[in-house]
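Review the following:
>
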Amino acid sequence: MRLLLIHAEEFEYEAREKAIDSAEELDGVKGSARVTNSLVAFVTVEGCDGKGLEEVVGCAAREIADVAKRLNVNRVVVYPYAHLSPDLALPGVAVRALRRLAEELRGMGYEVTRAPFGWYKRFTLKCYGHPLAELSRAVRPGEGAKAEEYAIMTPEGKVYAVDEYDLSKAPPDFRRLVEKEALRKEAVGGKPRYLEYCRKYGIEWEPMSDLGHMRYGPEATLMVELISEYSWQCAKSLGIPLFKIRGTNIFDLGYPPIKQHASLFGERQYFMDSGDKKLVLRFASCYQQFTMIKDWQISYRNLPFGAFEVADSYRLEQPGELVLCFRMRRFHLPDLHIFTRDMDEAKRVSIMVHRKIYEEIRKLGKDYVSIYNITRSFLEEHRDFVAELVRLEGKPALLHFVPEGKYYWVLNIEYNIIDELGRPREIGTFQIDVGNARRFGIKYTDERGNERYPIIIHTALIGSIERYLYAVFDAAVQAEKRGEVPSLPLWLSPVQVRVIPYSKEYLEEAIKVADILESNKIRVDIDDRDETLAKKVRDAEMKWIPYIVVIGKREVEEGKLSVRVRERRSVEKKTVEELANEIRERVKGYPFKDLTLPRMLSARPGYR
């Protein structure tokens, strides 16, 4: 089978008249259609395909789906095209193959349009102009039946075919991952609750920008800044020498390494023109770090070391797939690249990275289930290493086999939470990159004075800033479903303490308490509005304020504060020093930033 794959901005066809007597009747296919942003598969079914038709069709479907996934498109057109090979299958065989191919793709979740076989057809095509917009594939019997696409590795290091593994005994989250990724069973769906939490903190789409761009109110801005600083702390905790850098978002496709790297991501990138130059907005921090580090004089004594940047990243996601805090067109990626001497060192560092990634998600009361995108040769050669990674997780992992040499990496782990609606959501990532050092000319000098290319580990230890927030909010949603009080981690709460004077008579005392807490690096505000005490307390609870302090006559006379502790659902008596000590202990090791709002609520306009 021969395939010509075109990423089409627009594609339209119309069947005019039968070209052969055995042409397909127009009862199960569309005689005409018009689609936008689709992958058009021009298909020639060859004579040799009849020997292993099911196998050929399955391989062709996977090839088409792989390209569609890389392009991030969900529409596929199967278009019979007899001009890619002189060796044509009999009409009956061709029709059977085309029907089966469409069925396979629909089963994978794609929206499929199939044009009729054996007709003269008019068509118009508008092709996107990017490196993956025009591709060809040849599929032969016997080439795709060597092994399954997916397998499961247990913590004991055993590997099972998906249909041989008893999913009923697997952890529920892992079972859901396998059902979605390997068995193509979608979750029921529904409206996610976390969107309410986003609005609470001023996280929303910007309607006056391009689709998929977010804006952040004062509380959300503070959260983004705190997570950015925390991502740097996480990177430093690995104990590897680190270099923090900053750079530009725009790169010139006229440079071969930039163009080659861009070709891996296709139309999911933002392209722009400036004079006679074609430019691209960066997908992650790879471009900037690699173009910078290629100019460094590196010795084997310097390795391993890491480069870190919270990078503005741009991905031209499709409108129907945009999800607030999860899939955007512009987001913040705390990107870490670790440069290592060889595969042995890369594996040692990878185990540290893997352990850290799991440690961080578990601090939120959640856990990952992982997909190991991997080449078969890497698994065969480094099986003990892969088994060690899975053992550290303490649960099975889903192996997804990829073609040899197709990507710049040999191992790419996707760390997924299962969200409130039962959907796997990738948060963190980690890759072992064996191709980009050579592509960008990054070299180091070994013990004998020879130049060598390092192996590069790519990771965002806690995921993008926005996806980390997604995980935080999803943890709150699921806590609420369990009957617990939803809340944010204390270090991440925009306001950690709200002081409420019983009346204006006690405002001065409230200010004194706030000053003491603030001097202890605690974010505190004061509700000095002309509202009832009940309303002030209710508003603070609606904002998930962790500690609500009420000050009135009794508190002044006793010298102890009346403190509502959200996490414990209790009202407790504490001195201001006891309260400060408790909060300091709970946020130890996390970053601190000042309040991003006026301390007095009366000074705040009614922003959304």
User: Anything to note?
Assistant: The CA atoms of residues 39 and 76 lie 5 Å apart.
